[in-house]
Amino acid sequence: MDCRVLSVQSHVVRGYVGNKSACFPLQVLGFEVDSINSVQFSNHTGYDHWKGQVLNADELQVLYEGLRLNQLMQYDYVLTGYSRDESFLQRVVDIIQELKNNNPNLYVPEGLMPIYKEKVVPIADILTPNQFEAELLTGKKITSVQDALEVMSELHDAGPHTVVITSSDLPSPRGPAYLVAMGSQRTVCEDGSLRTQSVRMDVPREDAVFVGTGDLFAALLLAWTHKHPRDLKTACEKTVSTLHHVIKRTMAYAHTVAVGRRPSAAELELRMVQSKADIEDPATAVEAQLL
Predict the structure, then answer these.
(1) What's the pLDDT score for residue 255?
(2) Do 167 and 131 form a contact (C-beta atoms < 8 A)?
């Protein structure tokens, strides 16, 4: 049976961010993806100029009403990105709640910002904040691995069963060339007890600013946790390793066209199509350590 995702994120004509970062890898990995574009821009906002349109809450409702009238509301996952507009965010929450009523097994991964704390966290199943966002969501500072575990536990208590802190300032034992990511997954055992699996990863840094990597991370984590629902270690390894391969290929391309200077935003657009084989079957480049 097809696994179908509703992705409500931004769209760009040129480059990779939002739905452009999420839909292709999900489709490569075998998911049906229906996309609603919360914005449609010429390119991402890291360029000097951009033009386009922003979808408002009423326009979102019109699109959703078309799906409802044709009884096309059967989704296994809803993937959403950041929204600056509270009315649009509230409409997204209403849609998710209706879809969850239709399918109690619906999963909602979420790329978080602090404004989502009260409205989105309780209905999300998978959270992918960075350290700063995780601290704002819980009001707690992360200065150690134990702090991170406690923050993820508090986020579990709010609802989500899987939390991955995608990057942090924690020191890596492998040195300053690596950043630390951490994840936690809480599952219910057959006897009703709770089981928590926690992992940490030391991820190679790159001296460049990429756009769309967070959206790609969330989409990949959705896919690999679906394929390995009780094995966070494997899901994280495949997610982070894929991201590593995409970034390395992007950097290699950028260095060939930006000789003797820093690459431009256009030259640092993710090499997504060229990474199709790595998306399908990523070689392990980053290993997750069980805690």
Answers:
(1) 94
(2) yes
> For 70-85, how does the pLDDT look when each residue is reduced to its tens digit (9 = 90+)?
999 999 999 997 777 8
Sign (positive or negative) of CA dihedral 170, 171, 172, 177: positive
Report pLDDT digits (tens) over 197-221: 999 999 999 989 999 999 999 999 9
**Contact call for residues 152 and 140 (beta carbons, < 8 A):** no
Alpha-carbon distance 105 to 261, whole Å? 50
| Beta carbons of 182 and 144 less than 8 angstroms apart | no
The secondary element (H helix, E strand) that includes residue 156 is helix 145-158
Sign of the torsion angle spanned by Cα atoms 119, 124, 130, 135 = positive
What CA–CA distances, in Å, run from 132 to 12, 51, 129, 178? 26, 29, 8, 18
Nearest to 128 by CA among 205, 213, 29: 213
Is residue 215 annotated as a catalytic residue, yes or no? Answer: yes
- Binning the chain into helix, strand and coil, the percentages to the nearest 5 are 40, 20, 40
Distance CA 249, CA 271 (A): 7
Question: What is each CA distance from 216 to 27, 76, 238, in whole angstroms?
Answer: 12, 19, 12
- pTM exceeds 0.90, yes or no: yes
pLDDT along the chain (291 residues), means of 10: 91 97 97 96 96 96 97 94 81 91 81 67 92 92 97 95 96 96 94 93 94 96 96 98 98 95 95 98 97 95
| Dihedral class, residue 198 (left if φ above 0, else alpha if ψ from -120 to 50, else beta) | beta
- CB contact burial 67-99 (16+ within 10 A = b; e otherwise): beeeeebebbbbbbbbbebeebbebbbebbeeb
Tokens of 81: 């990105």
Q: Which of 76, 125, 215, 278 is catalytic?
A: 215
For residue 226 the two structure tokens come to: 């679906």
SS3 assignment, position 245:
helix
